[in-house]
Amino acid sequence: MSRDYSSRYTLLGTLFTMLAALIFGQHVSLLLDHQRGEILEEVRTSHLGSIWTIHPPRGLIFDRKGQLLAGNEMVYEVGIDYRSIDESSNQAHTIALTSNVYFGLDYYKVKVTIENPPNPHQVYLPLAKGIEKEKVDQLQNLLAIKESDSRLERAEKARLAAQLDGLVLQPYMKRVYPEPLLASNVLGFVGYTQQGLPEGYFGVEAKYNEMLSGTPIRIWVPNDPRMVREFPPIPEGASLILTIDRELQAAVERILEENIQKTGSETGVIVVLDPKSGEVWAMASYPRLDISRYWEYETLSRSGHFVFNRAISAMYEPGSVFKVLTMAAALDKGVVTEETTFLDKGAIEVGGLVIYNWDRAGHGKQTMQGCMQLSLNVCLAWVATQLGAPDFYAYLQAFGIGHTTGIDLDGERAGILKLPHEEYWSPSEIGTNSFGQGVSVTPIQMASAISALANEGKIMRPHVVRAIVKEGEQFMISPSVSSIPISAKTARSLTEMLARSLEAEASVALVEGYRVAGKTGTGEIAIPNVGYTSNETNASFAGWGPVDDPRFVVYIWLEKPSTSIWGSEVAAPIFPQVVKQIALLMNIPPDRYRKAAQ
Amino acid sequence: MKPLYRFAQAYKITPWRKQVSSGMLILVGLLGTILAASLYLDVTARTLALGRAILIMENEIREVEMLNAHLRTQLGILTSSAVMEKRALEMGFRRIDPGEATYLIVPGYVPLDQSLSSSTPRKTQSLSYTLPSIYRQSLLEWLKIQLDEWMRLERDSSP
Asked: Which of A188, A203, A272, A569 sees the fewest Cβ atoms within 10 Å?
């Protein structure tokens, strides 16, 4: 027997040895060729399972009273799973027809896509995104077998469901805004990157994008069901509670739009903030974007006039409202007092430039209050020269002019403040800057700077996020002092001076029941190659109150009003309209009730 | 003893008895293997079904979470400023003129701070450990644990 079979044993032995040598050789070659080894490892891993990246739902945005401003909506992606398509059956027709009837997709386009996959190995192809849940529900209701269905109906539904086997309805979350125009300039919007991932643009959506979107989790999902484990909890993105009051924001936006129409202005801004905390209660910017149609931003911005949030991104020369800062600096430094008088001759030369009053007239001997009340350029230019360039600009910088306020909104601009040591600064600048010409600011910068007068000389960092909610815990944002440009005494003294000014001229900015302080502004607009023109102005008004315990600062800016160029005629009348809404919605009783309660 | 020995000897050397004996041994072995295999298959099948169920439930959880978020947003839309104002106007209310507001002094009254949102997301509770370990073990793992447990009990009970 051994002689008969020995050759066979030898052959088998040789074969096994060769096989072992081959395996060993392959092993050695894979050890030496890392790249090939990695590719094969990837192939092996892909057969074992796959990695799922799960994006947590984007955090929500609420107003200060818990009203939803930005939420998430369940929508569907409709796609084709080519593995479930049977070419011999009528599936392509059924799917195309269903997609047309229920989702409004083009019948022929869908049918052609099903019948002609982009490549032979195509497994899945998305047809449409953002299909509303209601439409999908209608289809699912049609296919759902009910107890009342007859046998024939059940069979028909089962047949239809089988025909629709290759139609994939994949749910996902889409950002949605209950009121897409309300505070759109503050919220920003969520668009999609080239990789199809949601990303915030502008406003808080961009500033807090990382926090809102949360941390995506990568989970290994094995193909072997025995190895499947429960997914770890996926925490939602953090939610934000804003300082914005929804009702006040709506009211302020309505007031701004009404007055834009009434005054024939091109654009406008109203900012309302709490000087004691820096909380922005309302921030209206016109024109504004419907953020449910955010893709229109590109078209609008190409027109050249559209700025997403003018309150933080539009720069302009503020005009006379800036005199408040000049006077505050001079009073604080002690170069003038309330009683200091100035003989106004109607013109003054500063650095070789002759400066005139707005009416080109001289107003004789004036106190500082008179200078502010009559808004005398000549007087304020003199005050600035008394202060001197180093101190004047140091104060302006302390007020935050020339740099961003640090508000937690994306896209804030710094404005332009030329300083004495800089190339383009000329000695005449101190004169023009004193009444708000030759200097560029943003509305939030002005509102923030003015808030020093309403908060004992302190500027609180303006902010729009009041609290962050992360995994069920609420973290309050503490107010922080941005700078202290002037003393409390100066702040109170100037506030009193400006309150008396409004009362003395019986300004349209006065509010019944509340003692307020404020200043109008009319800044000429510089036109390239022409220079400053009085035909086109920036009309503004900055006001705050109640004078004895300021609770709000309101800053109003109208660009190029056509009914009147003067801030006192177009911007000042808006102030009481806004204050009445603030008083009502933010629970600020009239002075006499408040004082009686104290 | 001799007749018994003879009987045993005769039984042993009888060919058909030997065949039956070997056949029975093989059958017993086969039965044991089948029993173990079917037990293993049963447990494995249940594990597979549970694994599938976990995946399906994970998907359902995600869908329910999405649905919750969707409904929360729908609620936000229904209570939006514009919708509420429209409803109020339809019900016969009108916008108040700030001058019409009447203020009352209530001694000791402190206004409520409305900064805490009632609609904030709640903590999600992890469902880990809710699935009994028995459903996550293979038969061999289960046998090993049982054996270990038995040995531990034996050890503890011995003086």
From this structure: A569
Say whether residue A72 is in contact with chain B using an 8 A CB cutoff: yes
Search chain A and give the residue with CA nearest B118.
A66
Domain ranges of chain A: 246-296+307-597
A228 → chain B, closest CA residue: B51
- What's the total number of domains in chain B? 1
Has domain A246-296+307-597 been given CATH number 3.40.710.10?
A: yes
8 Å CB contact between A452 and A458: yes
Q: Contact A227/B70, CB-based, under 8 Å?
A: no
* Burial of A300 (C-beta count, 10 Å sphere; 0-12/13-18/19+): middle
pLDDT digits (tens, 9 = 90+) for B99-133: 788 888 887 777 666 555 444 444 434 434 445 66
Q: Which candidate in A72, A463, A478 is best for mutational testing of the B interface (most B CBs within 10 A)?
A: A72
pTM: 0.81
Q: Do A230 and B131 touch (CB under 8 A)?
A: yes
Confidence label for B156 from pLDDT (cuts 50, 70 and 90): confident
Cβ pairs A/B, distance under 8 A = 140
Q: Do A244 and A464 meet the contact criterion of CB atoms below 8 Å apart?
A: yes
For residue B11, give the H/E element and its range.
helix B2-13
Asked if A464 reaches chain B (Cβ–Cβ under 8 Å), the answer is no
Range B33-36 contact pairs with CB under 8 angstroms and sequence separation of 24 or more: B36/B139
Low-confidence ranges of chain A (pLDDT < 50): 1-2
How many CB atoms sit inside 10 A of residue A348's CB?
21
